[in-house]
Design goal:
three-stranded antiparallel β-sheet, two-stranded antiparallel ribbon, elongated, alpha+beta, disordered C terminus
């Protein structure tokens, strides 16, 4: 259908009102464009990259419309005002902008690489601590009290480290069971309630913490939750 430098602008299915989402793309060479994009062929001296960045940062409120799916019609596109400096100024702007964007991309890639290296380093430190000590796994396993389960060969530990059962280190209690029939009982005490939705990967989301009513005799069990919230 096309074999030339063009700018494509989304017609529908595009997040027109999100300033961080692209709405337009540059293409060149043989291409077949489907009916979900508008094809723009420039007629005046204009740098395609300048038009691309302009459209990707344009405020489409009042141009793209729709309830469940935004749509940008051809008639609306023709009404879009476009600032049009001379060609040299367009290219100067684009070069400065793309230089900054390339630096941002490099910084983002560097941060991702740093996070990956940090995660790998943390894993190596833990593994080194577990297998690089002098206490043998079989000896550490033998020192544990029988618990009716087979632990297998536990990892070697550094000198001074020991294995312990979780029950020795923490008081294990059940979570709150919501009894809807007794939530109106005036003797019950209202406490914060940590739901599954609050527990995210690597952190607790406490923006929306609901409450639940519990018997006063159980209040001590939930003191830690109250202190946390």
């Amino acid at each position: 259908m096309f074999d030339e430098p063009l700018v494509l602008l989304g017609e529908d299915g595009v997040q027109f009102f999100d300033p961080y989402k692209p709405k337009a793309y540059c293409i060149a060479g043989p291409s077949w464009v489907n009916n979900h994009a508008h094809v723009l062929r420039t007629r005046h001296p204009i740098d395609r990259r300048f038009l691309l960045h302009y459209l990707n940062n344009f405020d489409f409120h009042g141009y793209a419309n729709g309830t469940t799916r935004l749509k940008l019609t051809q008639a609306a596109i023709k009404r879009i005002p476009v600032v049009h400096p001379d060609l040299d100024e367009q290219r100067r702007i684009v070069n400065i902008l793309e230089d900054h964007l390339s630096r941002l991309d490099a910084a983002e890639s560097g941060l991702a690489l740093t996070r990956a290296r940090l995660s790998s380093l943390m894993e190596r430190v833990v593994i080194s601590a577990l297998v690089g000590g002098t206490v043998q796994g079989e000896r550490a396993n033998a020192n544990l009290q029988p618990a009716g389960t087979v632990d297998g060969d536990l990892a070697d530990l550094p000198s001074g480290w020991t294995w312990r059962r979780l029950g020795e280190l923490a008081e294990v209690v059940g979570g709150v069971t919501k009894d809807s029939k007794r939530q109106a009982d005036p003797a019950y005490v209202e406490v914060p309630y940590l739901r599954v939705a609050n527990v995210q990967r690597g952190y607790l989301d406490l923006e929306n913490v609901v409450t639940i009513r519990v018997p006063p005799r159980n209040l001590r069990l939930y003191d830690c939750c109250q202190a946390m919230c």
